Amino acid sequence: MSRQDRNENEEHFNEPSLEDFLPNEEDKIVKDRQMKRRSLIRKSIATTLVIALLISLNQVWPRVINFSSIKFLQKSSELSKHDDIKEYKEAVVTIQDQYTKGTGFNISETGLIVTNKHVVDDMYPITVIFPNGEWKAAEIIAAETDIDLAFLKINGERLPYLSLSEPDAWLVRDHIYVIGNPLFHNQIVNEGNILQGSDKNGVLRLSAPIYPGNSGSPVISSESGKVIGVVYAKSITEDVGYAIPIEQVLEKLPNK
Predict the structure, then answer these.
(1) Catalytic residue among 80, 118, 175, 222
(2) pTM for the complete prediction?
(3) Strand partners, 153
């Protein structure tokens, strides 16, 4: 190949200049669009995660901490400083399985637990946990559908227990304590009074705050320190709790 031909070929296959590698205006537009698209995707993902988190918190957090729980936690802390309340709390237990939990209380040194029937319905296996961490397997030995009452047997010795009052040992306006496990909390103490209209239709009406989880809580006379009722519900129309009177509990009490 002649020198002239080589020169012509070199001119034909010249390497591109540096400017050819630099982005032109069209490349910049494409790159900007890509960056905006990625930014939009990241923001969308972040927004979705935030919304999901807020929904989760909205569903769970109010059940754990809300204005009601803050109020009763303060009151419970005050009441729990009293020696008699400390003693009562030792006999108030948590009743649970792997899915649900409720409240009950022990009335025998060898282990007889009082609670509501609806607390233990479909609960299996049933475990009773004392405040000191001791736990016992329990079985239902009696259940009364008509008054929502249940008795559980556990095996134990020298267990802390609450004494049951005699029949007709309460009066309207009597001061009472309620101890239970409301709203994911344990061993919460509240106080109130027996209200007018109690014993009508076989119930005690209480001014003490009642929340989900209080079912099965003992109603304790502040004067005698004995149980005069068992909480089972709260009114949906007024700020009133309902309890099974001690008279009905004594009528259904199985042999220890």
Answers:
(1) 118
(2) 0.74
(3) 112, 139
From the candidates 148, 165, 198, 217, give the one annotated as an active-site residue.
148
Task: Judge whether 83-153 and 175-252 match in fold.
Answer: yes
- Domain 175-252 is in which class? mainly beta
Whether residue 215 lies in the annotated active site: yes
| Superfamily of domain covering 83-153 | Trypsin-like serine proteases (2.40.10.10)
User: Which sequence spans correspond to the domains of the chain?
Assistant: 83-153, 175-252
Contact between residue 76 and residue 88 where contact means Cβ atoms under 8 Å apart: no
Catalytically annotated residue among 76, 165, 198, 215: 215
Query: How much of the chain is helix, strand and coil, in % rounded to 5?
Result: 35, 25, 40
**Using CA atoms, how far apart are residues 193 and 82, in angstroms rounded to an integer?**
18
CA nearest neighbour of 116 among 95, 90, 139: 95
Vertex 214: Cα angle to 89 and 87 (nearest 5): 5
Beta partners for 234?
241
Q: Please, what are the averages of pLDDT over each run of 10 residues along the chain (256 residues)?
A: 53 53 58 70 72 56 57 86 96 94 96 97 95 96 95 96 95 96 91 92 92 95 97 91 96 84
Cβ burial, residue 196 (10 Å; 0-12/13-18/19+) = exposed
d(CA 253, CA 114): 9
What radius of gyration do the chain's Cα atoms show? 34
Report the distance separating Cα 193 and Cα 206, nearest Å. 6
Find the helix or strand (DSSP H, E) in which 83 lies: helix 83-89
Respond yes or no: is residue 148 known to be catalytic: yes
What count of Cα atoms within 13 Å lies in the side-chain half-sphere of residue 167?
A: 7
